[in-house]
Amino acid sequence: MRLFFASCATFLLAAAIGLGATWLTLSRGVAFGALTIGAWTAWPKNGSVDIDPYARANIARNGELPIGTGDGVAFYAHTDDAGDPLDGRCGFRISGMTPPARYWTLTLYDPQGRLVPNTIDRHGFTSAEIIRDADGRFAVNVAPQARPGNWLPTGGIEQFVLVFRLYDTPIGVAIRTTKEGPMPQVVRKGCS
Amino acid sequence: MIRLLLWLLGAVLLGGIVHLSTVLALPRAATLDAYSRLTPLAPVNTMVMLPAPTAQAAVMPFMDPAFAAAVCRYDLRQGALKLNAPVSQAYTSMTFYTRDSIAYYAINDRAAGRRAIELDLMTPEQHAQMPEQEDVTAADRLIIESPTRTGLILLRALAPEPGLMPMARQALAGAHCRTEAEPQ
User: Fold this and answer.
1) Cβ contact A128–B160 (<8 Å)
2) Cα–chain-centroid distance for residue A53?
3) pLDDT band, very low/low/confident/very high, at A162 (cuts 50, 70, 90)
4) For B112, which residue in chain A has the nearest alpha carbon?
5) Quick one: B6 and B46 in the same domain?
6) B21 and B83, same domain (yes or no)
7) Is residue B184 part of a domain?
8) B56 in a domain, yes or no?
9) What's the whole-number mean pLDDT along residues A12-34?
10) Which residue in A47, A49, A109 sits closest to A72, CA to CA?
């Protein structure tokens, strides 16, 4: 009888541990092979058959199609350079260098990957349309209220995600170091 | 005391097995994965234009709004698939996914090196059955082997600025995917 109860307790505990760990890893988005440059993180292997089981489970659960390795690579930022969360009620400045790529796009989403409604229907910029200064440098102002220059509206949401996608690029394929792949800085510029 | 520790150790080991098997089984059990989301929109072996993602509605999360996209949901049971996509002025790419959303091949317009991306998609068995001389005449066509019988082909064209979106969609409208007639 004691054996029976002990096995039941063990099985229950095992189920709790196993399912709990699965739930935790999926809700946190655990994946291996991350390439982190500044505030930005990419998982280049997610676009190939070498994708790890955790990333596979995540993709199956949220329904996205990862960008293929021969196509490009996607960098995600959930915080700024100082590690503070990207709060849509604050202003952020994204500026500096970009890694070699034929095109890049910068897009703002909510944490679930939906575009954020705003008055000017602007959800991101491409490298072709962005306004640059005389040196070829650019700055994007991510803010809830209108800003001069390249304004990317946050819609005032509590938390947003920035995705920087590089198309036709050696990043993630041949280049895996920070020096060769400079990514733009993300700096907070005060909150309203 | 030792007995209790042994039971606990057993629970942890068993928990590990439960964890790994649920993670591995999840892609098969998922009902909201990309393939399931696209099934009502895309008839099999036909290139279908996807609606542009907006704040109100999007077919999939994390779609790049700077791109026009079309999808071909394929099934190679009836034979190999022929793909033909004219490239747009800016940037065009074609990515191949298995039924479980694994990207197994991707090509862009520069790698294709022509005015159009043209290729044949088939299972390894269909590739092996191809007559040899046909292989020679088809040498200028790229042949891709699909690891699964069903899957998705995502064709995307960049609109470098919002005003060029009609141009990008126009380029994708000329794309086709269709099964070859079964060889006799």
Assistant:
1) yes
2) 19
3) very high
4) A70
5) no
6) no
7) no
8) yes
9) 81
10) A47
Most A CBs within 10 Å: which of B7, B96, B102, as the mutation test of the A interface? Answer: B102
Overall domain count for chain B: 2
Query: By percentage, how much of chain B surpasses pLDDT 90?
Result: 49
User: Which string of DSSP letters, residue by residue, matches B78-114?
Assistant: GS-EEEEEE--SS-EEEEEEETT--EEEEEEHHHHTS
Q: Does B55 touch chain A (CB under 8 A)?
A: yes
Note the pLDDT of residue B137. Answer: 53
Residue B50 lies in a domain: yes
- What's the CA gap between B168 and A94, in Å, rounded? 28
Within an 8 Å CB–CB cutoff, is residue B32 touching chain A? yes
Give yes or no for residue B184 having a pLDDT over 50. Answer: no
Whether residue B20 is found in the same domain as residue B56? no
Here the tokens at position A94 are: 């994204």
> Would you say residue B25 lies in a domain?
yes
Domain that holds residue B5: 1-30
Do B43 and B13 share a structural domain?
A: no
Q: Is A41 exposed, middle or buried (0-12, 13-18, 19+ CB in 10 A)?
A: middle
Q: How many residues does chain A have?
A: 192
CB contact under 8 A, A60 and B30: yes
For the ranges A37-51, B68-82, B87-101, B112-126, the lowest mean pLDDT is seen at B112-126
